[in-house]
Amino acid sequence: MDPSKWIDVTPEKFNYHLDHFVIPTHYEKDVSSILIPHGVIMDRVNKLARLIVDESNGPLVVCCILKGGHQYFADLVNVIKKLTTKSGNSVPLSLEFIRVKSYHNDQSTGEVKVSLTEDECKEFKGKNLLIVEDIIDTGATMVKLLEKLRQYEPSSIKVTSLLIKKTDRSNGYIPDYVGFAIPDAFVVGYALDYNEYFRDLDHICVISEHGKERYANP
Ligand SMILES: O=P(O)(O)OC[C@H]1O[C@H](OP(=O)(O)OP(=O)(O)O)[C@H](O)[C@@H]1O
Ligand code: HPA
To answer: Where is the signal peptide (predicted)?
Structure first.
């Protein structure tokens, strides 16, 4: 992995005590550490937006991958729409929402369900797509999604993911714009969930064993 493309999050460098930041009381026992505080996420989102605008080439169809990608998408779009390219032009944006699901508890089921109608896909022909995702873990979701989107002949597809996980389970897929490379632990917060819980937590945290047991699905 190329370290200049993202911030490498290691437990040695990023080791925040839970008492240093506000954690909602309903999750106090359910996270074991804060990996990336909300303020750091927002600063990194500003930089990613800058990189995306600098390399943009006309209007973008920004595709939010639901549900986990929604917070990064909202914050990223908010910055992009206020920026201009080096030649002083703002970037026209249209927004699309794609539902993709493959996780049960903290495991990929291997079966990636993509909710997109034929009519929605046909709209992609000849457009520049920017896919906005929260995390690349095994990479299975993104590889499957890209396979589907390419069939509809967009002019270009770029992918940004706030997080990429350093894991042996990776299929090797690396997005164009990455925020942070994180250790191989199950993370929650900033819209990343465990069985739909923790999306209402601002910081990106490592889930605790207590949290996994409390919110486990059979
Ligand atoms: O690289 P992978 O191993 O495929 O994992 C990444 C995917 O897993 C999560 O989605 P999930 O299926 O949990 O749905 P969600 O976005 O609704 O939480 C996440 O939002 C990514 O889409
Ligand atoms: O670590 C994770 N956290 C939340 N959702 C995920 N989907 C894949 N990996 C993760």
So the answer is: none
